[in-house]
Amino acid sequence: MFQIQNVPIVIEPGVEAIEAEFFAVERHGKARSFPVQLFRVNLDEKVAQILPFIPSVQRPHVFSLAQNPEESLALVVYDVLGRIQHVYTRDSAKRSWEKRDVADEHAGKTIKQFSIRYFFSTKESRDEFMRCVDGIISSLTQKKEPSQREIATAFNILSRARSEPVVLPVAVAKSSRKQVKI
Predict the structure, then answer these.
(1) Which helix (H) or strand (E) holds 104?
(2) DSSP secondary structure letters along 24-61
(3) In this predicted model, what pLDDT tens digit does every residue of 99-111 receive, in sequence order?
């Protein structure tokens, strides 16, 4: 597992390098973090051909682990105002880029809607809860009665939580905002 942490949310437009922290979990489960320096990528026509996106005036600030983005394992992209927008990482075979959008609440943008964050004690209980909720929601969207077993399982998992739910602001994608009721 590989994560980028402590990356600046907002940068000055003229900065040539930024500092971040990478977090890796190795095979034997030992986690370690280490500081890294990301360098600005000069966006010219040669570099534009090897980037996983088309550079534009909306995303003019790109930072990489190496001076040559082809050799890098990660790219951090900032928008025209200097706010973090996307993080690109290499897949496990190091052949293709995986794009991860940064949520509005992490990038310092306006929040559109609130949500609740639940904490689970194990990954398995989280997955079982999500499966039950997915089944309940699909039943309701098909205008069917949800399964009592799925409802009971979901609430049993929530009742075993060690900490109470936390209300958090969450951004809503513009394409799906029409379905959101405020």
Answers:
(1) helix 104-107
(2) EE-TTS-EEEEEEEEEEP---HHHHTTSSS--BTTB-E
(3) 888 877 777 777 6
Q: Which of 45, 51, 134, 135 is nearest to 97 (CA)?
A: 51
What is the distance between the alpha carbons of residues 39 and 66, in angstroms, rounded to a whole number? 7
* Nearest partner of 98 among 42, 36, 147, 53, judged by Cα: 53
In the chain, domain spans: 2-107, 113-173
| 100 Cβ neighbours under 8 A, 6+ residues apart | 86, 87, 88, 89
Q: Which tokens sit at 46?
A: 């040669």
Rounded to a whole number of angstroms, the CA Rg of the chain reads: 20
DSSP state letter for 83:
B
Among 93, 97, 95, smallest CA distance to 74 is for 97
Strand, coil or helix: what is 21? strand
* Residues 13-44: tens digit of each pLDDT: 788 888 888 887 777 777 788 888 888 888 87
